[in-house]
Q: What sequence folds into this?
């Protein structure tokens, strides 16, 4: 029987649910060096929390997140709350010597993110950030191919995260208020694709060359009084151009108003020797182009990244080949790698820690500055 | 706290695992009228069974399936074993007054299937068959559209289940031995698409008009002694043509030698008013053609069947729109409907019981007879 | 200046137009050993014919097809008329020592086809049949790959030609009258896919194992008096199963009632070493699966068959890579190969002559017999 | 017999060929108010020109373009030469009172383009620019849908023209020398997608907010002496962000180094009521999303834009539905509309004249300035 890894979860909404499911399943599908124990769940409102904790099998529950995050019988604190409180919760947990797994983006502001990164450096606990798309097998496979040199020198990165729920009829939810949300599509969606682009290429962005932040819908109906409207104070869409250290040029686009696309997360990377194309709506597939083989049969190959026998990442833990996975499996895969990493085992593909996620946050900040100042922004300036 | 529903699972291999996962998750994602309890797991070999039961959280384990199937503290017996023992296990459970959920196909032979169907009729327990593809949301949605008359009179059904693991290098596993497997691709794969075709159209096959059963690879290496070979006694592929009562004509194809397709389950149905096309490799999508709207923008529409707000089946229990599901979710959806049906609640879409699955078995039998006799076979003859 | 090749075209409708366009363009895009001269156009009705001939640049026109087909100043007779008069026109032309290029299918009946095949054997002129899909570059490329052994032993052939214009509202055109049309979807559409399957595999069908011929819409409005209806005497759809000499099993389906598909011509061939998949709606692409390479990146590769540098068939005669071709280009490619063959040059891929097209006609006939007799039909019986 | 329209073509390379084919075919497929006469072809080198003119049926040929452009027996001068000589040729023709149809982009520099635009204003002849993609039926259809308000207020435009022939092994052709080519991918490819974006949206760009112009391959082998290299003086890729007057935000990308894409021209436009997505590699299809209909069956609809009965643009002139067109047909469609416009008939969709193409040129110039100055550039500044 492996040693237990006792977990405190903070947050009981969408991410609370996605993380609970991950902790529930991970031990069933992976042979782990430590056994995850769903020790305690914390959230603000008692009402739903009891039902949530009971449903998912959390050992106990509390509305005092700090108590949960610092409890003696907890090893890992899983932060699944809104961005503006990541810092306080993570810092408390690190201070208490816990490992911390924090939802993305690292924080609501760059200042917070910096503090977290700095606190993580000397801490006893390890840190992790739930950039779940890294562990969609097709994205992990893309990373592996690039790392092996299969794309050669990289020329182009093209990343888009397109949603469409932000039409004029959508009310002024907290997500449209800067005070609570920090940003709009940018922190929510660009965070994912900036991380993915960094992860897949293994390279770092050195400059944001131009950016647009746009709020198409400036007034929205108030949730409680739809006849009146209030002002949206976040972006609906942020687009930016960037340069990578290795010479690649890139474009990023995040929006809540790409009618037709509900949750379209696309990444294309073109290199001298090949290219990859990923679309989350067909998440079990990676399109691969090999420029080094026979020209006559060259083309985009749709690889079903589900085959244990072919060494596809994570495939051996799940179902037979071409019996596809879904959105939730990225979280389970990340839970498995998190447990491994805590036990000094190597994750299947690199895990983002606070320092790593801070780099993504710097890119997001640079894009906001670029949009505001209407000028290119070197990353070296954003610290 | 709802009344418990205590489950005995028989079988610990691929399906044992898929069912365990379903019972583990179902209560987390669905509000159920009874609470599933993973009471006891049974399988032949003690060695692996203990680890299996412990991993999945089964309350106890036994190598005596009969003891499990008839135990006083069991309400539902879940049969996840090979086809040739479905009958004995299901009959024992029904006799003991249990509900029974049996893996597909219903049985290894039509005689067994008939006995099971007959035993189910007067039994106190309800019966279910795990035709999991009915509960892939896109397939359930196709069923709903047809039932509402959105396709009108149906002309064509085209169903294929294409795999490719059965090449000449594949050894003579039990799946290639008639004594154990009954048939090859036919019972394994055609069972699924015959059920899907019946389910989506809501219609019954009245005749198999022609059939080919082919064993391409007649000799295979012995698993234990690959230098020697043995004779495969099952089909590698079965194709057949059929007619439906409502007038549609149909083709079915199942094979283990469709190089390039690992697990491609496709169904197309064309009617007077519209058409649907499903491909399991893109399981979150249903292609829908509406022949009644504006001609100028008519075409195949790719519907992401993931939207609670739009009433897509099962969508409200899972993740936000376009955060797709995987293979395993069909089983969880079926587990939920099974629990509901036991409590006399209506399943989201119809559940197959033994009588229903017997109809599918009759079609499979008719195809085998047709291939052997080289003649059309009316279904009225196969009982 | 190469020697002229003087052409007489018979027919001025859809095919008359497609062939005229081919003869007009072929010398512009191909360097030919003889120069096609559009000498004379013949058709039944004088009214339109003059405008047709003038528009396309035919040197003269006549309503006497026999005069055109036997004129001294004609070298090649191009038969673009309905099926039931192919025989008379082809025989007259062959007797006059002309080369003959005949629209598909070879004839309206097997008897006619046999006569034509027999007449062609001793004739001075060469014969050709316009199975234009052979010269869609993707299909030609599929043929080349199979011939080179890239698929190895072939297991499966799956061919469909799906149209949808034959709904109940479509009037009783001549195409629905057996006397004029011979058959319905069968001769029109199955002719194409049987030829394609034979061409791509390089193999011959030895048996039709089962067949369905269905007339869904039995009564149709009369073209001239839509309040009254008349009886359709042809099939709306014909499906059949078949076996190839080399051991492959096959399914064919042609229909005018596949709602949603306007002109969907699909062919899939699976072999031991690889597979190909073609869909005419994306005619510049061939999907290729190579089972012999690296497993990890194996998948269906979408090959844009447009690259001269990679030796794709016909690519060098047209536009730069990935500047796609359309439906009409198959005819131009065939016109080029026809001129070459007349000059004893090798066509890019094999051209069907009357003997070859007679084999396709035998398969069509066997399917009709099988549907009628409700029994398998060996091809050896159909002569 | 309609009045003739006598044409002088200048240029005998790729575009000379594409235009010749258009003039050859246009009268065969369209009923035109004037009859195009292929009067004279001009080009620099006599050697190939004679063969070219003879092959395509040009009445005479000359190496003196000015003589051709100003000849008394010429009505329309078709300029198919490299960008840096468009101005001289167009001005000479306009001065001689001819109509002028000029290849895109309008000119090699903004100064040239301005002169041409200014010369066109008072001229007797009409002007046209061969932005052929406007007349790919799917693009024309997208334009129509937007114009009818089917997309409502437009939020996003996303345009990419991706090629991959510019790898390091490609020699230092004239296309990589600024003196001859002006720019690299920018003028060649962005010209097309800027025009398409303006055409489809019916809106104008008011600002380039950021831009990257990159030359990945700085030294290339000399064509005549591949052991030595020379410096490439043009961009390999240009990306830029932009804003439209109507409020939409946009991204544009053109590159010769997008490995895997040979000629991928993609445009997506998202509006409040719907969206369209076009990919030239599947040029007969337009993906349309309608946000105003039934939610349950909402999704991207693949419309085969080939149906005369449904009023698809240009469809009635070509082949039956779903018998697709190719690259060359955009040119033929444009030739037809050009002839119509000269006779004061309305083109199917708007034709770009010099004034219109000058607007595209201003956008291209603004992007270059933005890349160079590393700052946003208002279009009002670029004149």
A:
């Amino acid at each position: 029987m492996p040693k237990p890894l006792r977990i405190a979860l903070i947050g009981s909404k969408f991410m609370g649910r996605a993380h609970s499911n991950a902790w529930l399943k991970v031990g069933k599908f992976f042979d782990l060096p430590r056994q995850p124990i769903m020790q305690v769940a914390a959230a603000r409102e008692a009402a739903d929390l009891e039902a949530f904790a009971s449903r998912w099998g959390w050992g106990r529950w509390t509305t005092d997140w700090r108590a949960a995050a610092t409890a003696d019988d907890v090893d890992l604190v899983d932060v699944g709350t809104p961005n503006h409180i990541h810092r306080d919760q993570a810092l408390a947990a690190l201070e208490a010597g816990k490992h911390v797994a924090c939802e993305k983006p690292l924080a609501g502001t760059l200042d917070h993110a910096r503090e977290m990164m700095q606190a993580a450096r000397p801490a006893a606990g390890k840190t992790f950030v739930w950039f779940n798309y890294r562990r969609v097998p097709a994205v992990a496979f893309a990373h592996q191919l690039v790392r092996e040199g299969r794309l050669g020198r990289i020329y182009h990165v093209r990343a888009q995260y397109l949603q469409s729920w932000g039409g004029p009829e959508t009310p002024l939810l907290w997500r449209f208020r800067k005070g609570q949300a920090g940003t709009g599509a940018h922190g929510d969606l660009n965070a994912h694709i900036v991380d993915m682009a960094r992860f897949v290429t293994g390279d770092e962005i050195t400059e944001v060359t131009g950016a647009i932040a746009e709020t198409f819908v400036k007034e929205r109906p108030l949730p409680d009084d739809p006849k009146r409207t209030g002002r949206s104070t976040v972006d609906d869409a942020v687009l930016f151009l960037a340069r990578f250290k290795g010479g690649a040029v890139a474009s990023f686009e995040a929006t809540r108003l790409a009618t037709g696309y509900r949750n379209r997360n696309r990444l294309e990377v073109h290199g001298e020797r090949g290219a990859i194309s990923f679309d989350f709506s067909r998440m079990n597939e990676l399109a691969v182009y090999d420029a080094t083989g026979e020209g006559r049969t060259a083309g985009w190959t749709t690889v079903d990244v589900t085959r244990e026998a072919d060494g596809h990442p994570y495939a051996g833990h799940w179902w037979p080949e071409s019996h596809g996975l879904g959105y939730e499996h990225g979280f389970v895969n990340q839970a498995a790698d998190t447990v491994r990493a805590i036990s000094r085992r190597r994750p299947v593909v690199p895990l983002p820690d606070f320092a790593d996620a801070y780099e993504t946050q710097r890119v997001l900040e640079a894009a906001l500055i670029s949009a505001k100042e209407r000028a290119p922004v070197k990353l070296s300036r954003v610290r």
Chain C has ten helices and 17 strands. Chain C has a mean pLDDT of 97. The first strand of chain C starts at residue 3 and ends at 10.
